[in-house]
Amino acid sequence: MFANRSIFHARFALIAWAALGAALGAAAFGGPNVYYRTTDPNGQSPRQDPAGWTVMPGNNFPATVNNTQCLWIGLMNRETNGSKKVVTVDLTYTGGNQNALAAVQSKGYLPNGNPINGHFAIKGVRKQRIVFNNGCPKWEYVKYKNLTGSNQSYIISPKITSTCSGSSSSTGGPGDGDAGTLEIGDGAFGVPGDMQTPQRITELWIFPESTETDPIAPHEMIAPQHTGNWNPEIVFHDPDGLPRPIGGVRWTTDGFGLTEEDAYSLSLHTLERADSRFTIYTFDPDAVVVDEYLWVSQGRWLEAFEAFDDDYGLHGQDAWQGWDDDPAFDAPVTRANPRRGEQSLEVEGDADIVRVFDEEKNGAWSFSAWQYIPSDFESGDNGRFTGSYFNLLNTYNADGPYHWSVQIQADPRDGLLKVFHGDDINTINVPYIEDRWVKIQAEIDLDDDWTRIYYDDELVTEYAWTGGVLGDGGGVLDIAAIDLYAFGSSSVYYDDLILEPIFNDPCPGDLDGDGDTDADDFFAYLDGFANDVLDVCDIDGDGDCDADDFFGYLDLFSAGC
User: Fold this and answer.
1) Residue 357 gets which letter from DSSP?
2) 14-165 and 303-502: identical CATH topology
3) What are the Cα distances from residue 354, in Å, to 102, 351, 442, 495?
4) 108, 185 in Cβ contact below 8 A?
5) Alpha-carbon distance 362 to 176, whole Å?
6) Is the pTM of this model over 0.70?
7) Which residues is 206 bridged to in the sheet?
């Protein structure tokens, strides 16, 4: 349902040809050879410097990345040249600290040796999609950096696909925020939540792709005081001096600037509905470098609590309200315990705070939130439902009706995090983690009426979205609200709430990422099936590879794209 399958690399198999037969004929094999190293390649490809690179020995390989050291994954290409190159790197971590190894740079080298920068179309903890608009590189690398300050050991299973083509298309969606407004904040691509290079930002440009910038609206940027005063101006050229006829906004600061630890929020206003694609430039005064990024706004909502006054409640601000629109259930923003930036949300005592999502949703979505439970956490009640709650509702209206789809209870009596679903007795339980920020995530497929619940990136349970957390069913296929409920308990903190779409693979039989299903994909599946590579061969998601999976892939293959 949420699987995004791609092949690490395909090896020719005689059984594949026998299975396909003459119906498909012989196929030319494409895709990259994949290498890695922990020293800077300095522009040297694996063929120029084979001693410095190591061929990845299989779908899983161990890597030790020392303090401040980087890991380079290099790709040697076999595709023919075209006007555009797309590289997708999907990393599955089975060991190490997955949140502390970040993609910071991608660079390609043309057949004539000239370097070209890759622009990130998607940049996340697990998946990166990099676009080279200026040609199909002969080879390229993606660079990851150890961010922990100490040595880290990983076992990494990369799935890498790459395609060169003469034309391209992108998946976009409506702009964030109200019509005519782009609103982004800490954690959005490019600045500076996932940013590792540049290390400091003192100038930032944003240009919409097709919708004209409003020349008189108040474009705003809110950042910590120590970063300086950020002043906007409308500009009609980018940092390279190239014209931008529809305009953009350039922010500059008179202070130190933003680093990766600084939370921020900004808004850019356009004359029509907010664009779905933007180009972002950032200037690092230390390295005297301008970095360019492509940022795709696809209905993403992020709340880092940095735009609110500390020690004041959220009720009545930005679609936040106390339960049933009652300010008695408000919760305050606090500087006492931020995850990043300077503020977070404190939920304790009478707090029952709701954020409403007015726009009806469909498709697949991810809702994630970071939660901090102190070691002295305690409840004010001894009943069965004692503790503090993280809830998602598919239906919410002040004074009802309500329908809950996710109810997660932190119970201090036994130290368990309890996920309700299916009935009013049984819960799926895991120990909650104290004195550390931990991610709670719900993956929600509204098309298939299904959700998966993760705690600290581990799957806890899955069930029908409209099944009802107490087994009463009901509700609709929608995401209506987030509800954080203290129920008399002591303080629990929340930060970096993100609701964003998950784009399902429109071509699930396409394993090599070339936009079609052909003999290469069939051979790749047989290779994964023969070697029991679950990410490739386990079509029905039951944890093994058997005849049902084989015939399931034949159905996908026959359906095409």
Assistant:
1) -
2) yes
3) 32, 10, 17, 14
4) no
5) 16
6) no
7) 249, 280
CATH 2.60.120 assigned to domain 14-165? The reply is: yes
Rounded CA Rg of the chain: 24
Residue 398 CB contacts under 8 Å (≥ 6 apart), including other chains: 321, 324, 325
CA distances from 199 to 63, 102, 314, 441 (A): 25, 13, 32, 29
Write out the two tokens for 425: 């007795």
Q: Are 443 and 364 in contact (CB under 8 A)?
A: yes
Beta bridge partners of 87: 130, 162
**Bridge partners (DSSP) listed for residue 498:** 302, 368
Q: How many CA atoms lie within 13 A of 561 on its CB side?
A: 14
Residues 372-407: b if buried by 16+ CB within 10 A, e if exposed: bbeeebebeeeeeebbbbbbbbbbbeeeeebbbbbb
Element (H, E) at 524: helix 519-530
Q: Which residues are bridge partners to 201 per DSSP?
A: 258
Locate 386 and state its tokens: 């004692």
What residues have CB less than 8 Å from 341, skipping those under 6 apart? Answer: 186, 224, 261, 262, 263, 264, 304, 305, 306, 495
The class of domain 303-502 in CATH terms is: mainly beta
d(CA 182, CA 179): 8
In DSSP notation, 364-417 reads EEEEEEEEEB-TT---S--STT-SEEEEEEEE--TT---EEEEEEEEETTTTEE
Cα 269 to Cα 251: distance, rounded to the nearest angstrom: 14
- SS3 (DSSP) at 422: coil
Helix (H) or strand (E) holding 236: strand 230-237
Decide: 112 and 170 in contact? Cβ < 8 Å.
Answer: no
Q: Quick one: which of 409, 425, 390 has its CA closest to 495?
A: 390
**CA distances to 201, 386, 551 from 522, in Å:** 47, 53, 12
Q: What is the pLDDT of residues 536-547, one digit of tens each?
A: 787 766 667 888
Residue holding tokens 């599946």?
A: 525
Supply the DSSP string of 306-336, one letter for each residue. Answer: -SS-TTSB-TTSTTEEEGGG-GGG--BEESS
Residue 303 contacts residue 336 (beta carbons within 8 Å): no
Strand pairing report for 320-322 and 301-303: unpaired
* Element of type H or E holding 443: strand 437-445
Q: Give the model confidence (pLDDT) of 128-148 as tens digits.
A: 667 665 667 778 888 887 777
Domain limits, the chain:
14-165, 181-299, 303-502, 519-559
* Pick from 9, 11, 34, 160: nearest CA to 91: 160
pLDDT tens readout for residues 177-223? 333 555 554 433 334 444 445 578 899 898 887 678 888 878 888 77
The closest of 99, 32, 94 to 62, measured between CA atoms, is 94
